[in-house]
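Input sequence (227 aa), recorded before submission:
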Amino acid sequence: MNQTTESRETVQVSVDVVLLTLIEQQLHAVLLKRAAAPFAGVWALPGGYIHADEDADAKASAARVLRTKVGIEGAYLEQLATFSGPARDPRGWSVAIAYCALLPVQNLPPDRADISVVPVSALPQLPFDHRDIVDAALARVRSKSLYSSLPVHLCGETFTLPQLQQVYENILGEPLNKVSFRRKMDEMDWLEAVAGAMQSGAAHRPAQLYCVKPAFRQELALSPRGL
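Predicted structure, C-alpha cell format:
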C-alpha cells in the first residue's frame, strides 16, 4: 500500500499585549524595542512565545511577558482577539493571542532605554500587524467604557468622582453629564467611599475619595445601559 507523507509547517503561537495608560488626559501605549530579528531595534508591542512548560494558559503567558519584559505586575488584563495567518510574520504562519492591559501611570516602571510610552495618536510605524492589534484594543476600551467600570483600571487606588469622570471622558473623547454619570455609577454599585478620606484643593471644597469594592477589583461592573 502506498503511503503519502504530508509535510506540515510548524505554526508559531505567541501573545502580544497592548498596555495602555493615561498621561496628561491622553491614552498612551507602552512599546518595547525589539532585541532580535525580525525587526531588531524597532518599537513594537510587548510580546513573546507561549512557554508550554510554565504558562497555565494564554493569560498567564501575557502576564509573564509584562512581568519579564516590561517589569510590571498587577495590570488589568483582558483577552482581545486572535490574529493569524502566513503574512503577519516573516518567519512563517503564526498565531498571536492578543491582550489588552490597563495600568495607572504611577505604576509604570522606571525609565528604560528599551521602553517607550507613546500617545496612541502618535504611534510610530509598528511591525507585524501590531497596528491592527492596537486599533482593536482602542475600540474595545472605548466601547466597554460606555457600559462598564473598565476605565477605573487607569486610576490609582483612590480617586474622587470628578477624577473618575475625567478618565471616562478622556477615553471616550467627549464630555459627560455630571448628574447622569453619578447616577450610572450608583446604579452599578461598584464604588465605596473611603471613610474619613477627603482630597482638598485650593479652588474647591474637599472631595470624598472612593475606591473599588473588593468584589469588583478583578471583575468589571456592568450596566445594561450606556452612559
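Checked by second reader. Residues 1-5 have pLDDT under 50 and may be disordered.
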